[in-house]
Amino acid sequence: MRLIGMLDSPYVRRVAISLSLLDLPYVHEPVSVFRHYDAFAAVNPVVKAPTLVTDDGVVLMDSSLIIEHAERLADPRLSLTPPGITEHAHAQRVVGLALAACEKSVQIVYERELRPAEKQHQPWVDRVRGQLLAAYRLLEAEIAAHEGWLAAERPLQADISTAVAWTFSRKLVPEIARDEDFPALAAFTSRAEALPAFRASPHEG
Q: What domain range is 23 assigned to?
């Protein structure tokens, strides 16, 4: 399989780490949707990262859909999703919070870096910042209520997505995502980032 996209994207990175923990072999191709637009379009005309090209040549996109497909390919004993319905719903809530935090971080960065200063709308930025902080407050409470990983004795998708999200926000909006404001989240992420699967696919950029 081919994973297309840069590891400075939390969506690409969560897929890369998930594939590693699912013990699924793949080749990572660090193609940027900005700097290598034409090269990316040659693989996926929609130019959306991450893109996964399966062994059969099927082009998939969207990190959650790619991970869902990967789960079907992997040994069920390595699944990153808890089996119980109650536990599954809880894990999906955590993943949703982490993905919302990623989305809001991206929105802030795009507003600052891609929109001309005279067209930036501060009330919109303030709203997105509030949403970002709300997601991390809920994740902080979630992590503080647990010892170890969130749903099992090994990291599952909720753990992967949470740690990837925090690292991403700390890199891109450090004035908002501050370790001192979210100590449980910061310690949790440091523990995750020390794992071989995380170290093999480090945040870049």
A: 2-78
